[in-house]
Design brief:
Elements: E1 2-5, H1 9-14, H2 16-28, E2 32-34, H3 44-48, H4 52-65, E3 72-75, H5 78-87, H6 89-92, H7 98-107, E4 108-110, H8 111-118, E5 128-135, H9 139-144, H10 149-155, E6 159-164, H11 179-182, H12 184-199, E7 205-208, H13 211-224, E8 229-232, H14 233-237
Parallel strand pairs: 1-2, 1-3, 3-4, 5-6, 5-7, 7-8
């Protein structure tokens, strides 16, 4: 199977290893990966900030960058996938690009969703990570993409990993894009509450599908001297082999 990959700005600029590890896993399960170097942003930052004409311009480019009628689009960011699936609705549902949008909406998948629900894979052979981990449900994964069990199914098959649930795992980490900038005190307070829940299960690793959430956690953990290591799901599944 040939798949297109969408690498979001956050991954491209700050966590490139997540993109490489996603490709590593996709190739291991038999996918041939296609990357269009012309791709840029999904438009979410501009849209969240209220710059809708600018966001729509970027969104139109996204549609034009992924034109294959048959290939799935896989991304290591539920946030960006949620933007395409839901945020684009107001841009294109009544436009001449409606058909093109609906086609892409049906093809784009977050990484764990693609592995479990499209490929039918719950175990990545050779994946090993020794220690205790807890999982954070990003708002976009849970509320926009309906993803909850998919990453957990994959993590339960990682050799050496003890997956434990913290309380209120579905509560926001406090990032929320520009929310963390505009309302810093509230944002940090939300993260500190999440860290209290995390500390109760004493994990070695904090895992999520969204690097933006992990960045938020990491910033506050470093300030507080907490040594739990944040990891993207792709990093975990690509470890040990």
């Amino acid at each position: 199977m040939v798949v297109d990959i969408f690498i979001p700005c956050f991954i491209d600029q700050m966590y490139p290893q997540v993109g490489f590890n996603m490709v590593k896993v996709l190739e291991k399960v038999g996918c041939k990966v296609n990357y269009n170097p012309n791709q840029t942003c999904c438009g979410q930052p501009a849209s969240n900030a209220g710059y809708f004409p600018e966001a729509m311009e970027v969104a139109e480019k996204f549609l034009d960058d992924f034109t294959s009628p048959s290939r799935y689009i896989v991304s290591p960011s539920a946030s960006c996938v949620g933007m395409v699936k839901n945020g684009y609705e107001s841009f294109f549902s009544k436009s001449l690009k409606s058909g093109q949008y609906q086609q892409i909406k049906g093809k784009i998948h977050e990484f764990s969703d693609f592995l479990v629900n499209v490929m039918g894979i719950e175990k990545i052979e050779g994946a090993k990570l020794f220690g205790r981990a807890t999982y954070h449900d990003s708002c976009s994964a849970l509320r926009e993409c309906g993803i909850r069990e998919e990453p957990r199914k994959l993590l339960r098959h990682v050799e050496g990993l003890d997956l434990v649930e913290m309380e209120e795992t579905d509560q926001c980490c406090g990032f929320g894009g520009t929310f963390a900038v505009k309302f810093e005190a509230i944002s940090v307070g939300m993260t500190e509450l999440k860290l209290e829940r995390m500390a109760a299960v004493e994990p070695d690793f904090l895992i999520s599908t969204d690097s933006s959430c992990l960045l938020q956690y990491q910033a506050v953990m470093e300030k507080q001297g907490i040594s739990v290591k944040p990891l993207h799901l792709a990093d975990v599944l690509a470890s040990g082999w």
